[in-house]
Specification:
Blueprint lengths: L1 E5 L2 E6 L9 E9 L5 E5 L5 E7 L2 E4 L5 E4 L3 E5 L6 E5 L2 E8 L1 H7 L11 E3 L1 H4 L2 H11 L3 H15 L8 H11 L6 H8 L3 H12 L3 H17 L7 H4 L7 H12 L3 H5 L4 H14 L12 H5 L2
Antiparallel strand pairs: 1-2, 2-3, 3-10, 4-9, 5-8, 5-10, 6-7, 6-9, 8-11
Helix pairs in contact: 3-4, 5-6, 6-7, 8-10
Length: about 300
């Protein structure tokens, strides 16, 4: 477990059972204190289960839609292609971060149909969503929380088989900064560009071109996030022609240029990034390494 607290926000991250690590990046618990609302911009990321335990929560997407939720409730947040604004607190929430290969084990529904959206978890698992929420609410401490999550997921995916090695390969290629074109990504998969696009939309939620653009941005963001602006030009991904192109991408993905973003109070996501990096080495869900079933079972 790793805990980080900044301002009135506390993040705690936990690893799932070894058998689940090819599917799930982490479990996490959020507590927001204080008297008012906390507001933050989420990074583009893979799908998450969100269990809202108490407090008031809402999320506004790039197209202007705002979804509000009344806890306790169990939700599935699809892949986030661009930033979304989250508001919450005081309150508690528990989350589960998926890997793309995990999506393929967890559900037969297409990831593309849930991009930039949040729907009831029951859409995917029926009444088992209420069981999960009940078990998490009943957990008296963090050890019991992790045990409840592990037990529920192990039961849910029993008999579903191992994550598809093609999805692990596809994910690994996305994380490789030398893979800069759809053609190269498809070549790494041993598939035609059309076949690679179908795979991407079904399990990753976005087209290969959009995925490669997003990963290039996330690598650059992670590199500059703790650095002064004068160093940014040397640290951005080599796939960018120049710093101006990176700034345009930053505005596209985060809704504002980098200087404006870092001038904000980013205590919510800074606490999350520190806690995540302390446990896993990377600060962003979207940069989490692909994990093969053999790797996870040997942990």
């Amino acid at each position: 477990m790793r805990v980080m607290t900044e301002a009135a926000v506390s993040y705690r991250y936990f690893l799932p059972a070894p058998e689940l690590r090819a599917m799930i990046t982490t479990y996490y618990a959020i507590e927001i204190g204080g008297d008012g609302l906390t507001e933050e911009l989420l990074f583009p990321e893979w799908a998450n289960i969100r269990l809202l335990l108490d407090g008031g929560w809402s999320q506004t997407f790039g197209d202007g839609r705002t979804l509000s939720f009344s806890p306790p409730t169990a939700l599935m947040s699809g892949v986030i292609s661009r930033t979304a604004r989250i508001r919450g607190g005081p309150g508690r929430a528990v989350g589960v971060g998926f890997l793309p290969a995990g999506w393929g084990v967890f559900t037969s529904l297409r990831a593309r149909d849930y991009v930039d959206d949040i729907v009831p978890l029951s859409t995917f698992v029926g009444a088992a969503a209420d069981e999960l929420l009940h078990n998490v609410l009943a957990a008296p401490d963090d050890a019991a929380l992790v045990a409840a999550l592990d037990a529920w997921f192990l039961a849910h995916v029993a008999g579903a088989g191992l994550p598809d090695t093609a999805l692990v390969t596809a994910h690994e290629a996305l994380l490789d900064p030398d893979v800069r074109s759809v053609a190269e990504w498809a070549r790494r998969l041993g598939r035609s560009p059309r076949q690679a696009e179908r795979l991407a939309l079904t399990y990753f939620g976005m087209s290969p071109k959009a995925l490669l653009r997003r990963q290039r941005f996330l690598r650059s963001f992670a590199a500059i996030r703790e650095q002064p602006p004068g160093l940014w030009g040397r640290m951005i991904d080599p796939g960018y022609v120049d710093q101006s192109q990176f700034i345009r991408d930053f505005r596209y993905f985060m809704g504002m240029p980098p200087r404006a973003y870092f001038a904000r109070d980013v205590s919510f996501m800074r606490a999350a990034g520190k806690a995540r990096a302390a446990l896993l080495g990377d600060p962003l869900h979207g940069l989490h390494a692909a994990v093969s079933a053999s790797d996870s079972s040997s942990v």
